[in-house]
Structures are given as structure tokens and as C-alpha cells.
Amino acid sequence: MDYLNAFWVGGLICALVQILMDKTKMMPGRIMVLLVVTGAFISFFGWYEPFQEFAGAGASVPLLGFGNILMKGVKEAVDEQGFLGVFAGGFKAGAVGTAAALIFGYLASLIFRPRMKK
Is residue 70 within 8 Å of residue 97, measured between CB atoms? Predict the structure, then answer.
């Protein structure tokens, strides 16, 4: 059942994003920012953890999950450092995932040798 819930929740998120891309004039970058901010907003109110328990990877893998990770980092850093944690927490929490994406993206570019379209 876990796989089924992850599949339909992740698919629903992707379908909603596709509808946004098709029916509005929003650029993909803005939609991605909207997803991250929505994930952070849901996490702020404490609704993301039950959602993630239900949906598993269907909730944690899309950009909503990245917003959740950033907000969790900010909450922890504010508890430890006070107001300065607002600025440092998101960077600390999201650093590993961002670094991994950069490193693996670079390695993929070495293997597949991408070229600009002519």
C-alpha cells in the first residue's frame, strides 16, 4: 500500500504542475519556486509530517519535500541560534542535497558530453 500511495500522490503533484504549465503563462522556474514555498508553508503549520507519513516518497521527492527540509532546518536553527537561525538554517539543511545534485549533474555532463542546440 505504501508504494501505491507514493505513486498516486507523486503523480497527482506532477499532474497539477503540468496543468499549471499548460493552462497558465507561468515559467517552469516560477512553478518550481511555488512548489518549494508551498512545501515550506505546509511544513510551517506542521501538516507536512503526517502528509509524508501517508505518501512516503510521493511527498518527499518532489520539490515540496525540499521546501519541507528547508523549513525544518530553519526551525532547528532558530531554536539553537535565535534570530540568526532564520538565515543559516535553510542553508545548513539543504546543503547536502544541493551539493549532491551539483556533483552528480557535473559527473553526468562528463559522461554524456552535452552540447548546445544549433
Answer: no
